[in-house]
């Protein structure tokens, strides 16, 4: 058996080898960068600046893949489908360094050539050398000028190329933003950055101020539980190890909090429900809030392995986890508060999943929308008269947000749409009664929230 590529040649740059192996796992087995890379870094004992470099290169290249491929195809004068996978991984990594980092051209090209030579020999190394030299003849701006649709003809296509998004996703964002090119540009730019880590200080366990002090972080500006972490490994923090704090986007914290605050008609009887709970971020926040309110949460999750994640997330909280289909979970109706944090395209959290934007397809939306409607309808059936239902998605796609909501409301004329904006302490939440958070406006994922109430 041949030795793993990263061990074959000691001269190979270890951070780049780890980034290359992450890109390979994404390409070959649809792996997630943020699961693969940390494991590789641990196994290979890559730490400090080297770990930071590997992370920047792996995540940055994964985010920009679709655009780098167009540049590589032009420089190689052939479609990327005709290039061997391992060679393509190294070309992507090299092109990323040339076009989107301050790494010098010589280092970017020579480390790439070394990587491929140690694994595949002189022939492919010569090809990588020739293609990367061509890539290096222009900077990113000149490649955009050459390959992106002209801004005058197709502003969305141009911005999508410039900020490394598939065009269809830029179109989805543009639609949700009401067509403003300036807003779209700001959003795509924010979405093209690595986001800061947000922690949630679980209420009743630790305050955001205490957490900020002990984590060297900064108290968040929107959620009263949020702390922004400057860097470092959140898993190493005592508050996280003890379960008092979690890694959770500030937008998700606001959604769980909004459900806990939504006005029911009649007293809250203490029965709360999370209908799509895995992996348990919002279930934990709801559990902590329920504990303070003297309530209990039932958490439903269809996938056993994700239900297991919920169980570990809600340990010591008043949350009962069950594996089931939220459309028919077999629970006694009569809940005061129900959360439908629906399975969705996740287009609102692309910043946090480097490779996701190139994996999603427009066709994914139609099936999800059907499921979302069914889950929201089931939630209304499980809520008591006067009870409230929060519908949220980590996607701003109008079909998944307003589209689902409008259809379900049309079928349930007695259900009232409450003003969710009153439950979310943030500016610029959009027109209408629903909330749309945005990375460029709020620094959160692009979460959507609507709050409905059953008639008495
Ligand atoms: C957006 S995620 C929920 C995230 C979660 N609320 C959190 O904050 O950690 C949607 C979840 O719904 C689950 N799911 C999908 N279809 C479902 C169904 N029919 N019933 C219940 N859960 C479902 C998925 O497995 C996934 O874990």
TrEMBL record:
| InterPro entries reported in the protein's UniProt record | MeTrfase_RsmB-F_NOP2_cat, MeTrfase_RsmB-F_NOP2_dom, NusB-like_sf, NusB_RsmB_TIM44, RCMT, RsmB/NOL1/NOP2-like_CS, SAM-dependent_MTases_sf
Task: Provide the GO biological process annotations.
Answer: regulation of DNA-templated transcription; RNA methylation
Active site at which residues? 394
Keywords of the record, alphabetical order, are: Methyltransferase, RNA-binding, S-adenosyl-L-methionine, Transferase
Q: Where does S-adenosyl-L-methionine bind?
A: 276-282, 301, 325, 341
Species of origin reads: Williamsia sterculiae
This chain's protein is named 16S rRNA (Cytosine967-C5)-methyltransferase
**Which residue ranges traverse the bilayer?**
none
Question: Where does the signal sequence lie?
Answer: none
Cited function: May act as RNA methyltransferase.
Indicate the segments forming the SAM-dependent MTase RsmB/NOP-type domain, all copies.
Answer: 173-455
A single GO molecular-function term is:
RNA methyltransferase activity
Describe the family membership recorded for this protein in Swiss-Prot or TrEMBL. Belongs to the class I-like SAM-binding methyltransferase superfamily. RsmB/NOP family.
**Lineage top rank: taxon:** Bacteria
């Amino acid at each position: 058996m041949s030795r793993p590529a990263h061990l074959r040649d000691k001269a190979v740059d270890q951070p780049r080898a780890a980034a290359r192996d992450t890109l390979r796992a994404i390409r070959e087995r649809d792996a997630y960068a943020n699961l693969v890379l940390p494991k590789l870094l641990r196994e290979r004992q890559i730490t400090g600046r080297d770990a930071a470099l590997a992370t920047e290169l792996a995540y940055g290249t994964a985010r920009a893949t679709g655009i780098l491929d167009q540049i590589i195809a032009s420089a190689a004068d052939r479609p990327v489908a005709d290039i061997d996978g391992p060679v393509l991984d190294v070309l992507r990594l090299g092109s990323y360094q040339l076009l989107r980092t301050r790494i010098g051209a010589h280092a970017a090209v020579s480390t790439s050539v070394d990587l491929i030579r140690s694994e595949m020999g002189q022939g492919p190394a010569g090809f990588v050398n020739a293609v990367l030299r061509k890539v290096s003849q222009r900077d990113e701006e000149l490649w955009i000028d050459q390959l992106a649709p002209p801004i005058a003809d197709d502003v969305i296509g141009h911005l999508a190329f410039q900020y490394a998004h598939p065009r269809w996703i830029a179109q989805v964002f543009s639609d949700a933003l009401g067509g403003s090119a300036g807003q779209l540009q700001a959003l795509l730019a924010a979405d093209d950055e690595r986001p800061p880590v947000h922690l949630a200080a679980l209420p009743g366990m630790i305050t955001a101020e205490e957490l900020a002090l002990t984590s060297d972080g900064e108290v968040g500006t929107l959620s009263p539980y949020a702390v922004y972490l400057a860097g470092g490994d959140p898993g190493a923090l005592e508050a996280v190890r003890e379960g008092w704090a979690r890694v959770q986007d500030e937008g998700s914290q606001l959604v769980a909090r909004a459900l806990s605050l939504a006005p029911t008609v009649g007293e809250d009887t203490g029965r709360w429900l999370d209908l799509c709970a895995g992996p348990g971020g919002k279930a934990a926040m709801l559990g902590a809030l329920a504990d303070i309110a003297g309530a209990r949460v039932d958490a439903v999750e269809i996938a056993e392995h994700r239900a297991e994640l919920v169980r570990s997330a809600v340990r010591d909280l008043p949350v009962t986890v069950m594996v089931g289909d939220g459309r028919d979970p077999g629970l006694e109706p009569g809940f005061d508060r129900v959360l439908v944090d629906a399975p969705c395209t996740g287009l609102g959290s692309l910043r946090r999943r480097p490779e996701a934007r190139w994996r999603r397809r427009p066709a994914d939306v139609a099936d999800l929308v059907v499921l979302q409607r069914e889950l929201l309808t089931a939630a209304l059936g499980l809520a008591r008269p006067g009870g409230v239902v929060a519908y949220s998605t980590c996607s701003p796609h109008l079909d998944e947000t307003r589209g689902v909501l409008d259809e379900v409301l049309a079928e349930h004329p007695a259900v009232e749409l409450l003003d969710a904006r009153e439950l979310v302490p943030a500016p610029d939440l959009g027109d209408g009664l629903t909330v749309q958070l945005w990375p460029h406006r709020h620094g959160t994922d692009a979460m959507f929230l609507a709050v409905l109430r059953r008639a008495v």
